[in-house]
Each structure stands twice: as structure tokens, then as C-alpha cells.
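In the previous lecture we treated proteins in isolation. Real proteins rarely work alone, and many bind small molecules. This record shows how such a complex is specified: first the sequence, then the SMILES for zinc ion.
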Amino acid sequence: MKYCDAHCHLANLSQLMPLEPLITEATEHDITRYLSSALSKADLEWYEKHSKDFNILYSAGMHPNFELCDLDFQDIKRLCEQGKIWAIGEIGMDKGNSELALMKANFVKQLDLAMDFRLPVVLHIVGHQQEAYEILREYPLKYLIHGYAGSVEAFRNFMKLDSYFTISERVLREDKRDLLKELLKSRRFLFETDITQYYVVEGEANPLLRLESVIQTIAELFKVDTATLQRLQAANYQLLTGQSI
Ligand SMILES: [Zn+2]
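The predicted 3D structure, ligand included, written as C-alpha cells:
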């Protein structure tokens, strides 16, 4: 059984370094699937060319707080109609965006679109957790909440929805231990690097391998074997995408 990096930005990363050798090496480390996110028109072109070769499923959405995101509603709609994307996202709410009304309007519009096409939604929720939950509970959709690092209370709310979560380095911090415990107990998790070109550190040969250290750290912290973690993320991948790893 293999691993999926369930939230990453491979098109964006490819602008910094050639991806083929990185993906080949990652495959040797049993990382063989990617749920990757498109944030720009240039990203879309890249996925169009490369997603099949590299076992990438991609999603696209109008991000709540990324100024280089140049995707508009028509782009997302077209991708839905053409059956190109596995999900809409990442979309959501971010406390760093001061244009609350516009952010919410875009969020709701894209949730409506997900309803029309029965697509899962990849969520980016930073702050505004209660408000986001109040909106989401109106939609009977499948959610993948990426890199969630908010409160435990809000996590329990999101669990009332048909939600899955990606565990990132962010949740491995000491002060997030209670949240991490709940995430693991829920069994509704996958793992992510959230890698973009901006996160690569000087001298880092292959940032895709960070996924391994996330998994390793969890296995050590909670004394679970990696085979169990692998099985759960594979089952969740299947429930989300309808495909097996
Ligand atoms: Zn992301």
C-alpha cells in the first residue's frame, strides 16, 4: 500500500524545480498519489499537461487569501463542465482577508457550484471557524479540510459534516497535541505537505519527502505503526476520490 500527499501545489513547485526526478524519488519512498491544488491559470496549463503522467488529481478554486490567485468563477465552472477537477478548492475563509463580504460571496458561489456538479470541496479555513461552519452545514457536500490547525471545539463542529482532514507539519507542534489526538481518533485523516515553491528551504533536495517525516513523527508520538496510518489514509483517499491508491 502507498501514500498520497493529499494537499500540495505541484504546479507551483514546478516553477522552482523540475518535478520529474522529485516524483520518481518519492515513488521509491511509496508516495505515489497527489491531490494537488491549482491557484492560477498557469497552474491549470501545467496540470493539463502533466497530471496524468504523475498520478495527480487536481482541484481548482478561488482562494480566500492568496493574491497571486487569478482564477475566476468561469474558470472553475469550465473545469467542472469538462470533468477535469476532482474537487473544488482550495476555497474557504481566512482572517487575513479584510474583504469579508466579498470573500464570503465567493465562497458561497463556489459551494453552490460544487452542489451542481456533486464535487467534493477542499477547504482552507484560517480563523472565522464558526462562520465557516454555519455556511458549510447548509451543504450536504464532502469536505477535505486541509492543514486544519484551529480549535478543538471547531474541529468537533466540522466533524458533524462529511469531513476529512489533512494532517500537516503545522499540527505537529507541541501546543496542538490535543487537536492532533482528536484528528487521529476520528480516523478521517490523510497527510499533506502543502508544498509550494515558497516553502522550499535552501539546500532541500526533495521537499516531497516531507510527507514521510510527518507520518514518522505521528507514528512515534502515538506509538502507532505506519501500516495502520497507511491503511487509514488509503481508505479515506478512496472514500473521497472513488479511486484506490
Ligand atoms: Zn494549499
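Summary for your notes: The longest helix spans residues 100-117. Strands lie at 3-8, 31-38, 56-60, 87-94, 121-126, 142-145, 162-167, 189-191.
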